[in-house]
Amino acid sequence: MPIYEYVCQDCNKKYDKFIRSLTAKVELKCPKCGSPRGEKALSAFSARSAGSLSVGGTAGSSAAACGPAG
Question: How confident is the model at residue 6 (pLDDT cuts 50, 70, 90)?
């Protein structure tokens, strides 16, 4: 269930909209001016990976180089 960013075409306010389903009809309403004229904005996203752990529970060589010594 993604959260999309929109920009109001009337007042230029950015706001988020939680979408329950990709097929659901989206009712947009700007929280600042009440306009229904929102346009989906391009936004950055982040991803997290678990990384590589060895048998001893320490991070692999690439991650170990970034951690504190000792």
Answer: very high
